[in-house]
Please model this.
Amino acid sequence: MTGDPRFARYRLPSGLCLHVAESGSQGGQVVLMLHGYADSWFSYSRILPLLPADLRAVVPDQRGHGGSDKPVNGYAPDDFADDAIQLLDALDIDRVVVVGHSMGSFIARRIAVKAPERVERLVLIGSAPSASNEVTQQLLEEVRTLADPVAAEFVRAFQSSTIHRSVPVDFFEQMVTESLKVPARVWDAALTGLLTADSTADFALIRCPVLILGGDRDGVFTRHEQEHLATHIPGATLKISPDVGHDPRWEAPDDVASDVLAFLRSS
Model:
């Protein structure tokens, strides 16, 4: 299993600096892990220790989040996808498996469309055909009232709303701390960019194998939405876990790690 993650900052050709966590062997198969809305690399911290040492995990704080730069604009899924592709260039990585949760899943799909020759496989966690639904539109209304510093009570309520199973208290409190690093304008811009993007154009252009993981108690994207996503992506494999919410890699990290590894090792 992997040890503690290594941390570095990488300057992209665009000039943006990303804070990145890495674990595993430098020469191993590369898994790029993209966190969800208002999260950070720490969102995958319950998964990383469960991965074999011969697998190289690359887990950036995406722009506007965590320890990465927080530019004034550039928060559409395509902007995040371009950052990820430039990060692969900076790390001299040709091919990756891309794992994306929630917002990160929509970015992962864009990477697979924009750079199909570089994506071996996709794992989409807590996803849907479109990010826009009644829940996320209501969230956007709340987000547009935020001001800096963003209230910890709002962040705690937001993160609590995404889980069904309990998670370790220390882990949850650190996730709240990570989300508090996101400025109010990024909460707004990232969610607005996500909800206004046309994500349905991706489906016919995704050619790599796809695994979709979700929970039947997801409070953001319903089971129907998750199943609908699987019908749109040719050959996608869907696994819906019982009694799991929107954050399977928090709530059931052993199961997610096992599912991802089995998918990576499959023919």
